[in-house]
Amino acid sequence: MGFELHAAAEKALREHARLTWPQEACGLLATGTDGVQRYLPMANTASARSRYEIDPVEFARLERELREVGLRVCGFFHSHPHGPARPSDADAAAAWPRHLQLILDMGGDRTGRLTAWYKDRGSRELRQIPVQAT
Ligand SMILES: [Zn+2]
Predict the structure, then answer these.
(1) Separation of CA 114 and ligand 1 centre (Å)
(2) Closest by alpha carbon to 130, among 119, 112, 116, 111?
(3) What is the pTM of this model?
(4) How far is 77 from 42, CA to CA, in rounded Å?
(5) Which pLDDT does position 31 carry in this prediction?
(6) How many angstroms separate the alpha carbon of residue 99 from the centre of ligand 1?
(7) Distance from Cα 116 to the centre of ligand 1, integer Å
């Protein structure tokens, strides 16, 4: 199973990570039945630089707005300003089952290696899935 990331959504999340650097960027990925895919940047409310937290009130508002236009949250994105392109233990523990976790490694030359991870229901492990750009 691979994940197809639309070019516009990928561009938006990469841009967000670039603007937010050296802080972690975070946001939502939403999809609709007609194949629409959207990236929604969110505020990172964590005080530490090396992690991220989303505001539950902002999340609830965005989720409601998405539902009104026929979209739903299918995943979360965040950047690692200094890498690596894999989830931390905290990321794995906090990840929602059956939601995509996209991580962008902004370390090094900041060209940004993007990886995708998925946690099955009942599992504690994130497994990597291939990302295909469309
Ligand atoms: Zn992380």
Answers:
(1) 12
(2) 116
(3) 0.91
(4) 10
(5) 95
(6) 15
(7) 12
Give all domains of the chain, ordered by start, each with its CATH number.
3-133 (3.40.140.10)
Distance 18 CA to ligand 1 centre (A): 16
Q: How far is the CA of 34 from the centre of ligand 1 (A)?
A: 30
Helix (H) or strand (E) run with residue 93 in it = helix 89-94
* pLDDT tens sequence across 60-79: 999 999 999 999 999 999 99
Ligand 1 centre to CA of 47 (Å) is 14
pLDDT digit string (tens) for 11-47?
999 999 999 999 999 999 999 988 889 999 999 988 7
Please give the Cα distance from 92 to 117 (Å, whole number): 9
Provide the pLDDT confidence category of residue 49 given band limits of 50, 70 and 90: low
